[in-house]
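quick one: manganese (II) ion bound model?
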Amino acid sequence: MKPSESALPKSTIVDQAFKALDSFQIEIPSWGFANTGTRFGKFVQAAAASTIEEKFADAAEVNRLTGVTPTLALHVLWDLPRGLADVPAVKQLESRFGIRSGSINPNLFQDQEYKFGSLCNPSAAIRKHALDHMFDSIEIGKALGSRDISLWMADGSNYPGTQSIRKRIGWLEEALRASHDRLAPNQRLLVEYKPFEPAFYHTDIADWGMSSHFARHAGPQAVVLVDTGHHYSSQNIEQIVAWLLHTGMLGGFHFNDRRYADDDLTLGSIDPYQIFRIFHEIHAAAQDGLKLDIAYMIDQSHNLKGKIEAMVQTVVTAQELYLKAALVDREILSGLQQSCDLVAAEELYRGAFWQDVRPMAAAWREAHGLPADPLAALRASGYVERISAERGSRSSAVSSYA
Ligand code: PSV
Ligand code: MN
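yep, here:
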């Protein structure tokens, strides 16, 4: 038997695969459908969404094709610029398009007063302004019945000695605890980290250790969010994931791929093996009986690839990598790890990665009344051509650090 072949009968493997796919959903970001770019400019797409209604429509199309993206992440200032007053309109869109609001993302980086920080700004008045926005975001989450408040801040500094790093830690601890106090019992606060950009000397939540600290300090409903683009080159992200699983602090992911920095490339386009390794840690933890509650989300906004195509491609890739990792025979692997049979262990692990799971994923889709090949179905539907014609030059640019 080759290491990549399982001893299990084929029907058992298909059952296992279907079970794994049944358990996987992924959230898509509203900002993934809008025109975005780099600091060098924007290439505007005719099909880009310029209203929240269009973002819901595009999300519904991705869900119609894939069946696994029932929720749409919202960014407060971009999607609900009038705050709570916009909630009734969003609710109408939810029922019209059959898509629910997903994580609520406060925006603490766009307003002019945040030049030197938001919740970590030396000015108490600006910190209060930022905290009020956190409170508003939490109320929006409650009103929409969406569970996760997903916090990322651009806070940091560019030059050594220009800010007190420790004072800022204290201010942020205070703000996150106050935010946590406002959460409803079913809500969670996800704390995202990023080591650089737009701040380049220090960021106030630079890594998973700092995120874990802030989340723990805030309270039991706060956990860590891992954005795969927010690490230094060659960092071992699956080890971070294993630690967060072990300590009960893993709340969710922002998926994308990267080559150099926070590149927001489509998932698995550069390093699919890394995502497989992350999913393996999660499946292994589940198999070992750990209690998991992980929000899988995409954080990508494309300005070269077609937005809806890129989103469908990412969702399908996420499913495939999740499935490959689900099919690692972890009982055999555990024995090989125990006996330190390195080559056999690695070959078993890599064998699962190399197998072609696309036919199984297609069979699962057909069994659920979904198109076997969502990308081909998107092309055949003419949806992108139709919205391109309708939206045309109306699409306006939306700024983002994504
Ligand atoms: C920041 O780089 C980030 O990853 C945060 O999650 C933001 O909310 C998102 O991108 C969009 O700018
Ligand atoms: Mn992110």
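The first helix runs from residue 10 to 22.
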